[in-house]
């Protein structure tokens, strides 16, 4: 079972990352899906998507949950029936979840690709990063910023929230492995902690809503 990494963020918050290497048949063993999730999986034409979907159920099992403990709201945001907070992500052959007893959380895994240079202006003021030494560093940084904004969007879960206009990620160095961010939307300001890590050409970013923020 390739549980790739677990990160204890705090005594109440944990990240679980899976590297998907097994065939679908092996992943489907011991996994019982709800009717809703079974129909979602049945609709997936891509075997890679189905394997990712099943691997997330194994991550949940590592955290002590089964698929029946999970439900989705009208926005498509996942929730746990016991009231703890959960967020889910997958990218190619990596999947991840973050679970917290105390904080609203979001997680995103992205493959580092130069394609991000073309779309950067749509989600961040690109001129802020012109001091970076080379395009590889720029791709890494933009991927972290994108992942942070994806994570925050998953927490906030409101239609109309703009990555460019409403979400601000404070600049950071790679060595910090963390930063802070704020969302200013509909006159309301909220604050978040951001942490990130890189592995095998991928970037994982997770966000926690700050107390009182």
Strand order of the largest sheet: 7-11-10-9-8
β-strand number: 11
Strand-and-helix sequence, N→C? EEHHHEEEEEHHHEEEE
Largest sheet: 5 strands, antiparallel
Instruction: Give the integer mean of the pLDDT values.
Output: 93
| 3D shape | globular
Domain 4'-phosphopantetheinyl transferase: 105-195
Pfam family, one: ACPS
Keywords: Transferase
Organism: Flagellimonas abyssi
In short:
With 213 residues, this protein is an alpha+beta fold. It has six helices and eleven strands.
Q: What this model shows, in words?
A:
This protein has 213 residues and is α+β, with helices and mostly antiparallel strands. The chain has 6 helices and 11 strands. The chain has helices spanning 24-28, 35-42, 47-62, 115-123, 135-156, 163-166, and strands at 3-10, 13-19, 70-72, 78-80, 85-91, 94-100, 105-111, 167-169, 178-185, 188-199, 202-209. Helix 4 packs across helix 5. Residues 105-195 form the 4'-phosphopantetheinyl transferase domain. It comes from Flagellimonas abyssi. Pfam families: ACPS (PF01648).
How do the helices and strands line up, and which of them pair or pack?
Blueprint: E1 3-10, E2 13-19, H1 24-28, H2 35-42, H3 47-62, E3 70-72, E4 78-80, E5 85-91, E6 94-100, E7 105-111, H4 115-123, H5 135-156, H6 163-166, E8 167-169, E9 178-185, E10 188-199, E11 202-209
Antiparallel strand pairs: 1-2, 2-6, 3-4, 5-6, 7-11, 8-9, 9-10, 10-11
Helix pairs in contact: 4-5
What are the defining features of this structure?
five-stranded antiparallel β-sheet; 4-PPantetheinyl_Trfase_dom; four-stranded antiparallel β-sheet; 6 helices; alpha+beta; about 210 residues
């Amino acid at each position: 079972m390739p549980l790739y990494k677990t990160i204890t963020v705090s005594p109440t918050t944990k990240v679980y990352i899976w590297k998907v290497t097994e065939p679908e048949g092996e992943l489907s063993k011991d996994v019982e899906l709800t009717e809703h999730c079974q129909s979602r999986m049945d609709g997936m034409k891509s075997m890679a998507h189905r394997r990712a979907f099943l691997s997330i159920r194994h991550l949940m099992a590592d955290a002590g949950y089964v698929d029946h403990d999970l439900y989705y709201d009208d926005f498509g945001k996942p929730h746990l029936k016991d009231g703890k907070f959960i967020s889910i992500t997958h990218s190619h052959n990596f999947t991840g979840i973050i679970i917290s007893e105390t904080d609203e959380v979001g997680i995103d895994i992205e493959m580092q690709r130069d394609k991000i240079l073309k779309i950067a202006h749509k989600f961040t003021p690109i001129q802020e990063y012109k001091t970076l030494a080379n395009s590889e560093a720029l791709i890494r940084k933009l991927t972290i910023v994108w992942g942070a904004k994806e994570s925050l969007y998953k927490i906030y879960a409101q239609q109309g929230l703009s990555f460019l206009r409403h979400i601000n990620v404070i600049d950071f160095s790679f060595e910090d492995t963390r930063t802070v961010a704020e969302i200013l939307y509909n006159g309301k300001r909220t604050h978040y902690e951001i942490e990130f890590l890189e592995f095998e050409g991928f970037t994982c970013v997770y966000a926690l809503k700050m107390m009182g923020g």
